[in-house]
Amino acid sequence: LVADGVAFNTLLLACSRYERVAEAEEVFAEMKSAGVEPTHVTASILVKMYGRAKMLDRAVEVSEQIKRESGRTPNVHVYTCLIRACVQNQQVRRSWELFNRMLCEGVQPDAITYGTVIHGCIYNNKFEVAMELVRHAHMLPQPKEAAPEHGEHSPLKLSQLRLRRPVPLQPEVLRALHTALRKKSQVALVAELEGAGLVGAPARLG
């Protein structure tokens, strides 16, 4: 019997779950030699596996290889897996680069994509960048003075993709950002987040 894409992806997923990277690579090579075209699902499985294995370069390489061979641009799920791999490997700036590439290719982020990039910003105290993402997702105006951070220009290219409608972020992402902003005494950003009605102001004791 000749295995199809579903069968190969099932094998890849099993290898990924048990962190059998070498076996997964053998399955992927066999998949290609059998003439079975990798799909977005294939790319997502491999990217997740390499991300967990701390093989970020390989995660990016395999996604580019599949794009090159299939002619298909990575979809939102593949890009989100790539961005998560960057965050897992503490490569926040690389996550921004991939987010920018995603926008330039016309792939619209979903709430999970935004949340993944924002979590990376929180871990690295890049609060202005996190707030840029919040504003973009909710289609709020970007203050002119908000872009530079520590004298740098914004690393994001948000103007590359205009959303057709807001992408409401997950409440837990907004709460995590709100908590981090308060802990770091980012008073103006806390006020902006609360003023936009995205999170509630904490109740005062007494």
From TrEMBL:
Domain of life of the native organism: Eukaryota
Q: Give the UniProt keywords, A-Z.
A: Repeat
**Coiled coil start-end:** none
Repeats (PPR): which ranges?
4-38, 75-109
- Cross-referenced Pfam families, in alphabetical order? PPR_2 (PF13041)
PROSITE patterns reported for this sequence:
PPR
Give the signal peptide range.
none
InterPro entries under this entry? PPR_rpt, TPR-like_helical_dom_sf
Name this protein carries in UniProt = Pentacotripeptide-repeat region of PRORP domain-containing protein
